[in-house]
Specification:
Number of strands: 7
CATH superfamily: Spore Coat Polysaccharide Biosynthesis Protein SpsA, Chain A
Oligomer: single chain
Largest sheet: 7 strands, mixed
Strand content: 15-25%
Number of domains: 1
Distance between the termini: 44 Å
Shape: globular
Structural class: alpha/beta
CATH class: Alpha Beta
Helix content: 25-40%
Radius of gyration: 17 Å
CATH architecture: Alpha-Beta Complex
CATH topology: Spore Coat Polysaccharide Biosynthesis Protein SpsA, Chain A
Order of helices and strands: EHEEHEHEEHEHH
Length: 218
């Protein structure tokens, strides 16, 4: 039985509007192709978890056929990232005892990280998966006070620290799982390529797209 609404936050992949910071390395079209591959690999991972109710938290209408049906799509709504996260996560807590937010730019995330976060919810109100840039790639919650994410710095080196401080100040107990990395800039893409080549990560759609873009010959 699903006890966690696992919400994957994503933008509909479009050239010039998605993963734009990767464009200098792979072009606008290449960045959009990678965005499609990232969400494909991430979705394949979360849909294998027996305890998860996978939800796609989208910033707009989601293209049919991009992911294997059926796909439950929730719209993030308006406002900054904090407002949109609160909207989705509170909705998740209405339908499941716990909720988890996951980025769509973490292809190859080991299932063990997700299992560890699920297990940590047994003794913590909030579970963070720290990312190497100072933010977090995962946040799992058993409860969420209204306004908890208001006026926090997003996409900054202090994002994780400030968010954790905020939740702790509201009385939530906090735990961490192993760190991972977002693929946001060309240096992240190079790291991803190294790990895929070494076999330490498994992301078949992303690997195939990198081959199509000629990156696998680098």
């Amino acid at each position: 039985m699903s006890d966690v609404a696992l919400c994957v936050f994503a933008k509909p992949p479009r050239a010039g509007a998605t993963k734009t910071r990767l464009a200098p390395a792979v072009s606008d079209e290449g960045a959009a192709s990678l965005a499609r591959a990232f969400i494909t690999d991430t979705w394949a991972t979360v849909t294998r978890l027996p305890w998860a109710r996978p939800v796609l938290a989208s910033t707009g209408p989601w293209p049919e056929g991009l992911l294997p049906a059926p796909v439950e799509v929730w719209q993030q709504g308006e406002g900054d990232l904090g407002a949109r996260m609160e909207h989705i996560l509170l909705r998740g807590l209405e339908v499941c005892p716990a909720v988890m937010a996951l980025g769509a730019d973490i292809p190859g995330l080991p299932v063990a990280h997700l299992e560890a976060a699920h297990a940590a919810l047994a003794h913590a109100d909030a579970v963070f998966g720290p990312s190497d840039d100072g933010g977090f790639y995962l946040l799992a919650l058993r409860r969420l006070p209204a306004g908890a994410f208001a006026n926090l710095p997003w996409s900054q080196p202090e994002t994780l620290t400030r968010t954790e401080e905020r939740l702790s100040s509201l009385g939530l107990t906090v735990a961490h799982v192993a760190p991972f990395f977002d693929v946001d800039v060309p240096a992240d893409l190079e790291r991803l390529e190294r790990e895929l080549k070494a076999g330490t990560l498994h992301a078949p759609a992303t690997a195939a797209t990198l081959t199509t873009l000629g990156r696998s010959k680098r």
